[in-house]
Write a structure and sequence with these properties.
Order of helices and strands: EEEHHHHHHHHHHHHHH
CATH superfamily of the largest domain: Tetratricopeptide repeat domain
Structural class: mainly alpha
Number of helices: 14
Helix content: over 70%
Strand order of the largest sheet: 1-2-3
Radius of gyration: 23 Å
Number of strands: 3
CATH class of the largest domain: Mainly Alpha
Number of domains: 3
Strand content: under 5%
Largest sheet: 3 strands, antiparallel
CATH topology of the largest domain: Serine Threonine Protein Phosphatase 5, Tetratricopeptide repeat
Shape: globular
Oligomer: single chain
Length: 356
Amino acid sequence: MTLNPLSNPKGVKLLCELCQKPAFVQCTICRVTYYCGVEHQKADWLGIHEKICDNLALLRQPAPFLPSEGEREKREAVLLDKKRQMIDLTRTTGQKLLFEGKHEQAVPAAMQSLRFAIDVYGLSSIELVPSYLILGEASIGLGRLSQAEEYLAQGQWTVLKTPECSNAIKSKLYRNLGLLHAAKGEYDEALRNLADDIYHASVEFGTDDIRTSGGYFHMANVFFRQGKMEIADSLYRQVTDIWYNHLDSIVKCRTKTPETPKGMFYKMFCFLDEAQEAEAVQVLNSIYDIREHQPNRKAPDLALICHALAMLYFIFHQVKKAKEFGRKAVVTSDSNPDENFSRKIVEFMKICDNVK
């Protein structure tokens, strides 16, 4: 990343990509992005700009003169498709950074996704809500609860005036509201919103989908904070079961002979996107830490989470780490009377041994 101090051309108002203050530094790669200083340029680069820099020149430069209407329509279609790709990329990146606990870095990605969504769908579209929610969750993580309330209020208002709003978006809204109330110590209200999250996610995806499991996980965390460990344990077990079954299906898909056909089937059953990968790491490691340090831990629960993590790292091609958790699962399952589960771990370890 190179820096290029500017003298603003006369009559041209250049604004910082992050704070909208007067800009004096230009990205010399895309040459269409400006910053108030080096600090904001570096923050944007780490958050999202590195991933989208090459595309911004096409999207932000003035349109060339095209003589025919057909050429102009073709160019507009290409730009529209590219902007939609940018919405997906920036939102996935922002969500990934949130799962990794990098709340400050998630802000530039969310802001970019919001700009692209406004450009494509307009200022009042329901399509803007996912970006508001990422900004809201980032603000919660940074302890800026008043700012989080503003973003979530904007998202909630848009949802309320959009009767056709999907259950998927409603689920994410209620999850973020639950996180906000939990951060404020308002646990009853947090649980109410998380229950709404689980309901809408279940309607959209089913009760045993990884996209529903986040509601169970955050609800378990609320009960954990209240010292209600029996309920929290039950919910953590449910989250582990959901991820375990999902990861098991991916491992089977990837190790199946003959090789599973690629394309849409592969993406649906053999693939996690960046945000889902980060969520799996965050959620499963959090549950593992809880299970590992419980004074009266139950061997089946610890064995299950170890096997789930072993499969996750196998999917990441981190075979050494996969074997490490696999061995922990084997040792822990020695006292587990479930022979089918023990056999599955042994079979998984054989798969790991065969990886070159």
